């Protein structure tokens, strides 16, 4: 059984427990069952009890090492499981809210609470409406996110579904308009996101630029070392070319930076009711906790989204008999529509200077290398994506 490190009483025989098992800390819903405590499951009422706590008052207050932030102060009843990902267990309550328990706590400082607060204060509507959250401050570390509550969007699907379906349909029909329209809407959404985050705007230093460049070279060496896949062989053969591409990151001092999303890709964009919203402000999971909350150039988010659209085309090709050339043409149209709409949106909001496109290609390459590392270490069946994406991206450079 995990050791209980800390706990917050939620009332009515429920509590939030911080537990330790090996090196993993977890924020778990617990319920009193007879004379013992056990992990709560949906319908045990722990998520309902947590909403009751957040509904007691609006604003922020603390209890021991826990801090509560309530924006909606709303109750809901009726629990059902939504699913478990790598970091959360999500419970739908009353078909109106999603309670996300951090079953794998990140080391603090956690970027989500401050970013969500800034977006809410800016009245940004391109995300599920936040209801509230609970952070935990360990005695020997920085605060991290234990539970987050936001609006439930029935029927929402992420981009690895809606984008793949759209790109497949467009390549099949020869009509790229639907995918171009969707990509443009996402571009406008990300422009609105960045505009809403401009209260966090500052300017990068030479140390920042050196850190970005140093990290990119580390990713290059790691990707070269971890795999004998097709992409690994190609990367090792083009190591010097890629290193030269990454050199531009060392010149990114004295550029605007914001508390950006940090891990932006199509999977973080939900489609619900004909509209798009962006989710998951936990920051880049491959960075050390000390760096996840640091400001970034807006182009980091843009590159992540643009490259993920290229990966959508690879996924579509994997599961259909469509010609590669047809999917490549639709992919190019989608990325162009996304980038054009993004720059137009920033301009309309009066923030043209926020986006510096110079390192876009270098950051796209870095994203592919991260996919290689992820596939090699966690999900080998995903390697087909960087295997196809890396040579295509390198060929783009030679065609310029």
Secondary structure: elements and pairs:
Elements: E1 3-11, E2 14-21, E3 24-33, E4 36-39, H1 46-54, E5 59-63, E6 66-70, E7 79-84, E8 88-93, E9 97-102, H2 112-121, E10 130-136, E11 144-151, E12 157-158, H3 159-173, H4 177-196, E13 202-203, H5 206-226, H6 230-237, H7 239-246, E14 256-257, E15 269-272, E16 275-278, H8 289-292, H9 298-318, H10 324-348, H11 360-377, H12 384-399
Antiparallel strand pairs: 1-2, 2-3, 3-4, 5-6, 6-10, 7-8, 8-9, 9-11, 10-11, 12-15, 13-14, 15-16
Helix pairs in contact: 3-4, 3-9, 3-10, 4-10, 5-6, 5-7, 5-11, 6-12, 9-10, 9-11, 9-12, 11-12
Structural description of this entry:
The protein is α+β, with helices and mostly antiparallel strands and 400 residues long. The protein folds into two domains: 3-151, no CATH class; 157-399, Alpha-Beta Complex (Aminoglycoside 3'-phosphotransferase, Chain: A, domain 2). The chain has helices at 46-54, 112-121, 159-173, 177-196, 206-226, 230-237, 239-246, 289-292, 298-318, 324-348, 360-377, 384-399, and strands at residues 3-11, 14-21, 24-33, 36-39, 59-63, 66-70, 79-84, 88-93, 97-102, 130-136, 144-151, 157-158, 202-203, 256-257, 269-272, 275-278. The strands form four sheets. A seven-stranded antiparallel beta sheet has the order 5-6-10-11-9-8-7, sandwiched between helices. Strands 1-2-3-4 form a four-stranded antiparallel beta sheet. Strands 12-15-16 form a three-stranded antiparallel beta sheet. Helix 3 packs across helix 10. The model has no long low-confidence stretch (mean pLDDT 94).
């Amino acid at each position: 059984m995990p050791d209980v490190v800390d706990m917050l009483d939620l009332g009515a025989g429920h509590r939030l427990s911080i537990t330790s098992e090996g090196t993993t800390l977890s924020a778990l819903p617990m319920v009193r069952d007879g004379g013992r405590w056990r992990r709560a499951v949906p319908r045990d009422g722990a998520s309902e009890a947590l909403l009751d706590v957040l509904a007691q008052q609006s604003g922020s207050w603390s209890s021991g090492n826990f801090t509560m932030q309530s924006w909606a102060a709303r109750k809901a009843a009726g629990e059902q499981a939504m699913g478990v990902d790598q970091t959360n267990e999500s419970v739908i309550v009353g078909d109106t809210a999603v309670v996300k328990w951090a079953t794998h706590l990140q080391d603090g400082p956690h970027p989500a609470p401050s970013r969500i607060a800034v977006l809410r204060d800016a009245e940004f509507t391109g995300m599920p409406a936040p209801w509230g959250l609970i952070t935990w401050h360990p005695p020997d570390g920085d605060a991290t996110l234990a539970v987050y509550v936001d609006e439930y969007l029935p029927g929402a699907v992420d981009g690895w579904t809606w984008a793949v379906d759209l790109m497949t349909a467009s390549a099949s029909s020869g009509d790229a308009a639907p995918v171009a329209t969707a990509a443009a809407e996402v571009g406008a959404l990300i422009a609105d996101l960045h505009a809403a985050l401009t209260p966090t705007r500052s300017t990068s230093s030479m140390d920042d630029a050196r850190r970005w460049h140093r990290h990119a070279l580390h990713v290059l060496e790691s990707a070269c070392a971890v795999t004998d896949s097709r992409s690994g062989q190609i990367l090792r053969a083009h190591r010097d070319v890629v290193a030269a591409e990454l050199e531009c990151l060392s010149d990114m001092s004295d550029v605007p930076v914001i508390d950006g999303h940090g891990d932006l890709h199509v999977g973080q964009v939900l489609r619900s009711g004909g509209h798009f919203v962006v989710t998951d402000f936990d920051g880049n999971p491959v960075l050390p906790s000390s760096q996840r909350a640091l400001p970034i150039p807006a182009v980091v988010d843009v590159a992540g989204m643009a490259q993920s659209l290229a990966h959508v085309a690879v996924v579509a090709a994997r599961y259909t008999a469509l010609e590669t050339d047809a999917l490549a043409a639709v992919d190019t149209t989608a990325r162009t529509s996304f980038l054009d709409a993004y720059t137009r949106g920033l301009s309309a909001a009066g923030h043209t200077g926020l986006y510096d496109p110079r390192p876009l290609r270098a950051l796209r390459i870095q994203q592919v290398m991260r996919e290689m590392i992820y596939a090699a270490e966690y999900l080998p069946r995903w390697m087909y994506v960087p295997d196809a994406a890396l040579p295509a991206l390198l060929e783009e450079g030679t065609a310029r």
